[in-house]
Amino acid sequence: MVAVTGPGTTTPAATPAAAPAPAAGPKQARSRVTRRHLLEAAVSCLAEHGWAGSTVAVVAERAGVSRGAAQHHFRTREDLFTAAVEYVAEERSTALRELFHAGPAARPAVVEALVDLYTGVLFRAALQLWVAASNEEQLRPRVTELEARVGRETHRIAVELLGADESVPGVRETVQGLLDMARGLGLANVLTDDTARRERVVAQWARILDATLG
């Protein structure tokens, strides 16, 4: 569109300025807080009570909201628990990156931090979800896809923090072996406190990484 300014002359008309995006109001803020409480409560319930004992009603009570409010955010039980594990996994990944915000760090510290990902509440919750998915047909594809996505992201973070060059033969397998080992330590820690043995294994893996990665 053009505006006429005189005989034989035109100039582009001023384009109306776009209206600023409305700021999120109190209702949207409350909705985000409720959703976060539900996700965190779902992970805690799953870790403590397993799949069988973790219903939407139980999670809603723990989060301090009504069951209707929970179902407003998450239509099904599967929606709630897969979203919860993904949410906390993303939070842990962010925290891990911030812990080493300057990039590659001392390898013993990185190995210990990666192992810690598999020895807390998140791992216990994810483990319960995996067990449930082995028996629940409607849950299995969602958990399989979620685990693959979280696994890829964790691998990327490990490569970044270790300063690993995966173009070198054997490096990718060594990094993946570290993560597989960390998962195994997480499993060992489910039934007993495996802290002492874990410390020795972490120290040995740091030495292996130094020898392999240079």
How are helices and strands ordered from N to C? EEHHHHHHHHH
Q: Which residue ranges are poorly predicted, with pLDDT under 50 across at least 5 consecutive positions?
A: 1-16
Mean pLDDT: 85
Query: Compute the gyration radius: what is it?
Result: 24 Å
**Which class best fits the helix and strand makeup?**
mainly alpha
Question: What does it look like?
Answer:
With 214 residues, the protein is mainly alpha-helical. Helices cover 70% and strands 4% of the residues. The protein is built from 9 helices and 2 strands; from the N terminus they run E-E-H-H-H-H-H-H-H-H-H. The chain has helices at residues 26-49, 56-63, 67-73, 77-99, 107-116, 121-135, 140-162, 171-191, 195-213, and strands spanning 2-6, 9-12. Strands 1-2 form a two-stranded antiparallel ribbon. Strand 1 and strand 2 form a beta hairpin. Helix 5 packs across helix 8 (171-191) and helix 7 crosses helix 8. It is elongated. The N and C termini lie far apart (64 Å).
List keywords for this structure.
214 residues, 70% helix, 2 strands, mainly alpha, two-stranded antiparallel ribbon
What is the fold's blueprint, element by element?
Blueprint: E1 2-6, E2 9-12, H1 26-49, H2 56-63, H3 67-73, H4 77-99, H5 107-116, H6 121-135, H7 140-162, H8 171-191, H9 195-213
Antiparallel strand pairs: 1-2
Helix pairs in contact: 1-2, 1-4, 1-6, 2-3, 4-6, 4-7, 5-8, 5-9, 6-7, 7-8, 8-9
